Amino acid sequence: MGLRAARLPVLLNQLGDRPGSGFDRFRDRVSVVAGDRDGVAPWETGGAEILFTGPSPAWSRAPLKAPAEWGDGPRWVQIASAGVDGFPQWLLRDRLVTCGRGDAAVPIAEYVLTALLLHEKRIDTLRPQGPASWLETARRFRDDPAQGTLEGRTLGLFGFGRIGHAIAARAAAFGMRVLALRRGAWTESVPGVEPASSLAQLIAEADHLVLAAPLTPETRGVIDAAALSGAKPGQHLVNIARGALIDQEALLHALDSGRPAFATLDVTDPEPLPEGHPFYTHPRIRLTPHICWSGPFVREQFAVRAIENLERYLDGRPLCGVVDPVSGY
C-alpha cells in the first residue's frame, strides 16, 4: 500500500476547505496535501503535479521570473477566480491552467442591475422621518427631473463573456437596448444584443457603461482621458472587472466635468485604496469593496467545477475553464 500511495499524483491544495468534501472520492487516485496561498512563497509546491490556489497578497508579490523553487512546476493549476491577472506570467506558461470563469456571473449581474436601478430610481436617498417629511419626500421624488428608468436606456458592455451574457439577459428584461464590444469575432448573433464597432461607439452611445473585460496588457488603462472625453452626457460608468482598466486620475477629472455623470466602482487600483484617496468621498462615486462576485452559491459552484476538473484530469479528458496564456484569460 505504501508503494502504491507513493505513486499517486500529489495535489497541493492551497484553498482550505473550499473544494468541500469532493476530494474524498479520489482517495485512491490522488494524494492531497494542504498548502497556504497566503504563505511567504506559495509557488513552493514541493513537486506537486496539481496545484489548487487562488489570488493572494503573496502571489501578487511573486518575482517576475520563475524562482528556482518552482522548478518544472505543476502540470495543472486550478485557480479559484475568473481573472488571472494577480498571478505572474510564468505560472501560466508551459502547463495547463484553469480558472473559475463564470462561477460568479449571476451575483455580478445582479450587482450591476442593482447599481443601474439605484442610479435611475434613487430610492436609496429617500429617508422620510415623519408624516410631514413623508409627504415632502414623496413630492420631491415625484417631481425630480433626474428620476429615470431603465426602459429604453442603452447598456454598453465592454467585454462579453459569461458575465456580460448574464448582465445582458437581465438588462433585456428591463427593456434596455444592449450594445456589446468583445475582443474576439462575433461568430453568432445573440438575441437582443447589438455588436459595437468600437470602444468609441460604445462610450458615445451608452447611458450605462459596464466594464466586464479581463485585465490584459491591451485593456490596462483603456478607459483614459481620451476615451472618457467621448462619454455620452449623463452616463453612468460601472466597473466590476479590474480597477486598472481605468485611468483613475482621468476619471476624477472627467467626473468633475460631468462626463461621465456618475461612477459605481467595485474595483480599484490598488485594493484597498490608500487613506484619503478622493474615491472614498467623491459625491459622484459609489464605492464598494470588491464584493460584486459574492453570492450564496459561488463557492459551491467553484467546488463542483474544481472537482469535475480533477476527475477530467485524472481520466485524461479536456478540462473546463482553460486559460489562454497568450490572451491572459
Automatic annotation (TrEMBL):
Gene3D superfamilies: NAD(P)-binding Rossmann-like Domain (3.40.50.720). It comes from the Bacteria. Pfam families: 2-Hacid_dh_C (PF02826). Keywords: NAD, Oxidoreductase. Signal peptide: none annotated. The keyword NAD applies. SUPFAM superfamilies: NAD(P)-binding Rossmann-fold domains. The keyword Nuclease does not apply. Residues 142-291 form the D-isomer specific 2-hydroxyacid dehydrogenase NAD-binding domain. This is Glyoxylate reductase (NADP(+)). It comes from Acetobacter musti. The lineage of its organism: Bacteria, Pseudomonadati, Pseudomonadota, Alphaproteobacteria, Acetobacterales.
